[in-house]
Amino acid sequence: MQKIKKVIELFEWFCQNIIWLVMLCCVGFVAVLNLLYRSKVAYVWTEDVSIERTSITALVLAVLIFVVFLIAGSKIQKIDEKILFIVFTVIYIIAGIYWIANVSTELRMDAYSAHNGSVLMRQHDFSFLNPGQDIYLNEHQLSFVTYEYLIGFISTDVRFLYAVNLLQIIGINFVIWKLTDRCFGQNHKTNLYVILFSFLFLPQFFFLAFAYGIIPGLFFILLAFLFLDKSLESGNWKHMILCVIFVMLAVILKGNNIIGSITIAILCFLRILKEKKWRLILLAVLVMVVSVLPGKAFHAWYNKETGGVLCGGKPKILWIAMILPSSSLLNSVILFNSEGDKRSVIKKLPTIKTTPVRSKKNTIPVISTVMPFIIF
After folding, report:
1. Is 326 helix (H, G, I), strand (E, B) or coil?
2. How far apart are CA 154 and CA 272, in angstroms?
3. Cα(114)–Cα(112) distance, rounded to whole angstroms?
4. For residue 221, which of 230, 250, 275, 304 is within the disulfide window of CB 3.0 to 4.6 Å?
């Protein structure tokens, strides 16, 4: 019995270290790419993206900033965490009000389709779900349409949606601070750096003008991790229920967040190796269930309201075409719209080996391979 316990403990240690190693490799890889390349999104309907090499000046500036923070590390500990967070929050609110008041409210692509759908739904008009419409082809957007519909009870103004995004961005920074505090043993210096860098991450601030599910989805999945940690520590049922609720909201708003729900389930199973508690199994199962069922419920309800016109959206395999030239994506969508059958589309979808994405200074090869499987 003792040997079995040691084997389990060794397996747990191995899994945790593998997770740390993979995490460090991924973060390091992304950090290097962020230093070497930068992307620009044109403020036009098609949201054209260009990728450029980072200039030498920017790289030198990044190194200098890193050195400054290393030198100032001993003095930063004198600052109170709460005061630092409050100061940055006030700055964000003032800057956010100015930005929201002056930025364009013209929505583009998916954001426009979702907002337009929510406005039409308030008039009991479901024409935005007719065959050929954007949301008919991208059914996963129905969740964000519903989100905007609910927010519309307060205001349908796009600027109000921006304001909600601003509050959620501040909430994201707050949750990251609290998660760091719990994960790193209330390390004051680490907490200060996290608060500082979270607010200095300006791309997230300017992202408040992107009226889509990314900001609210990230906010809710981070809350799910926070209450997961509290649940594992206290065993409180309230924390466990809140974790499940926030996972559900995060996945509903942005399907990519299912990666977070899978992570939570894996963490629960790893914890089971240490603590043989059935509630951990229940939590893992509930997290996966709420990651799948709500999407099917949305489809069933909207399908009923529209008289059964929904087709389930275009196959997710076509998302690969998003990194290809616009003509390839357009042809894929037209093919699905005319065929109406996922299997026939996947059989006819060509395999693209290498497509160059050109920028002003360089050409970055983008490799995309069509996976040989059927999405049901």
Report:
1. helix
2. 44
3. 6
4. 250
Residues 205 and 92: beta-carbon distance below 8 Å: yes
Over residues 162-186, the pLDDT tens digits come to 999 999 999 999 999 999 998 887 8
Q: Do the beta carbons of residue 143 and residue 298 sit within 8 Å? A: yes
C-alpha to C-alpha distance for 369 and 346, rounded to whole angstroms:
12
pLDDT digits 0-9 by tens, 121-149: 888 877 777 777 777 777 777 778 888 88
Q: Report yes or no: 283 and 246 within 8 Å, Cβ to Cβ.
A: no
Those residues with Cβ within 8 angstroms of residue 276's Cβ, 6 or more apart along the chain or in another chain: none
CA triple 191-20-31, angle to 5 deg: 70
The closest of 69, 35, 60 to 196, measured between CA atoms, is: 69
Cα–Cα nearest to 114, from 136, 87, 89: 136
Please compute the mean of the pLDDT values over residues 69-79 and round it to a whole number: 73
Taking the C-alpha atoms of residue 87 and residue 100, their distance in angstroms, rounded to an integer, is: 20
290: helix, strand or coil: helix
Report whether 51 contacts 39 (CB < 8 A).
yes
Output the CA–CA distances (angstroms, integers) from residue 350 to 334, 354, 367, in the order listed. Answer: 14, 12, 14
* 3-class secondary-structure state, position 26: helix
Q: Is the pLDDT of residue 372 over 60?
A: no
| Residue 40 parent element (H or E) | strand 37-41
SS3 call for 101: helix
Are 219 and 213 contacting, i.e. CB atoms less than 8 angstroms apart? no
In angstroms, the CA 92 to CA 202 distance is 10
- Provide the token pair at 221: 């999945």
Look up residue 292 and give its amino acid: V
> Six-digit token pair at 320?
């690969």
Joined tokens for residue 154: 């307060």
In angstroms, the Cα distances linking 68 to 27, 65, 145 are 22, 5, 45
**CA separation for the pair 348, 20 (Å, rounded):** 41
Strand partners, 356: 365
Category of 42 on φ-ψ map: left (φ > 0), alpha (ψ -120 to 50) or beta = beta
Residues 110-124: pLDDT tens digits? 777 787 778 888 888
What is the rounded distance in angstroms from the CA atom of residue 268 to the CA atom of residue 261? 11
